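Incident log, structure service

09:12 report received: a user says their structure output differs between two submissions of the same chain.
09:20 pulled the input from the user's history:
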Amino acid sequence: MKKTAPYIIAAILVLSAMPLLAQQQKKVASTGGTSPHETTSAVIDGSRVTITYGRPFTKDPKTGEPRKIWGSLVPWDKPWRTGADEATLLITQHPLVIGEATIPAGAYTLYTVPSESGGSKLAFSKNLGAWGVPVDEKNDLVRVDMKKEPMEKVNDQFAMAVVKSPSGGGVIKLMWADTQFSVPFAVKK
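09:34 re-ran on a clean worker, output below:
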């Protein structure tokens, strides 16, 4: 039973998130959303970590003109939905440890508070099914520090990734325009 318990929990998490994903796709279709949606997932130390998010482009979808992303479309030091359209959803099978914080297994809304010169944050909110950014910070489980660094190659479309870290554990990455944010994590067994 102990060997099948993680698979049963994962199935329950995925099934419970399906209505949220269906609602997300319905809202995008009804609003004429121009940002495709993507799901990225990886198994890190025996735990599947999945993120579903909208992928906006650097070019304005109506005019095709380039947009200034950081500090303009995405303002500094204010909550940002971390993608486009429906709020970004993270599902983890096992608890994640980020710095001193432990994120229990389950589903969370992710959003960021990017900063030009200070500490950028990744927030894990218990408020699921929201459009955009969860409004009430009291639903935040935790906000963790993100590392900000320039990218050599410009990313025309916002992207997220969950990848294994060579030193163990994993990394959540956010990449857009000329900037990458990252958060390392460990899986708590």
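09:41 both user submissions now match this output. Likely a transient worker issue. Closing.
09:42 reviewer note: Residues 5-187 form one domain. Strands lie at 37-44, 47-54, 88-92, 96-98, 101-103, 106-113, 120-125, 140-164, 170-187.
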